[in-house]
Structure prediction request, 346 residues.
Amino acid sequence: MIIRKKRAVPLICAIICLIIMGGSMIAVAVLSGSLESQRVAQRWRNGEMRYSQVSVFLPDEAGLSHTATAQLRQSVDNYLAAESIKAPNQNARIWIYAFSGETTVSVSKNTEAVQARAICTGGDFFTFHPVDMASGWYYSDKDIMDDGVIIDRALAWRLYGGYDLTGLSVRIGGYPCKIAGVSNTPERRSENDSYGTEPTVYVPFSLMQKIGQAPNVTCYEAVLPDPVGGFALKTIESAIPYNDGDFEIIENSRRFSPKSNFANIGAYARRTQRTNSVFYPWWENSARYLENFAALFTLLAVISAIYPAALLITLILRLFRRRKTIFRALARMMSQLLVSRRLNEK
Prediction:
């Protein structure tokens, strides 16, 4: 009985380790799909063409100008055309992009003024970042009037004491604007912590240019064809008019892959040390927060797999050493079965 218990202990330990490993792998899968801002390529993809999402982050003082984003777009179009990657028709789009930058503005209603964080947006920003709306709708670069803004709940409460404010007016830097909608504060902890408590307003870049307070573009995002691994990354990287050390580029579609998770394990300590002045918006800080957890769960899965793997290897080696005895036992068993079958036939 004692011998049987001793044999059962390693098996029980192996099962526990396998459960921990499976749970860790599930946790990584859940983390990788929890942020809509990192899954744009999956939502945009249509048909057999593979797509990838790429993000570029730049320092605030050396960001792109609004004009430079148009040049970057043209560079990407030329690069894709040179590789014979074209839209199926004139009305279709082969790739999408968004850009943003941040500054601080004064948002006022009558005599009430609030200092707020302004996230200035361009391109298909709300395709990349479908913020949850308490009321109203998203504005678009295609709107005839570019005076629509989205304020978050904190700012809405400070100004009006309510949230159903669509169509009402506010002033940004003294310039009259219309409230297109009110956005909810992110509820998920990783996003909420990164978002913070500062009152926030989303403003079109074109409107901020009229106001005269347009910041530099510090975040440029794109979803484009990736027929060969790394093609999308290379396309955007070649179009950015800066040296490698002046910006940070990330392939969002692969940031939670096993390869990336293992790389983050090796660079875990260095990830907390900033050696550049690149500006991360709140959604990128949220993604990096989850990246750290994905790396830890990957490490836990690897450690948990060591004991079952060692036990399996030990078992295989024991079976190999006793292979002659096992083969004899199998041969004896087969012989007995044949004899028994012949006796039954008689």
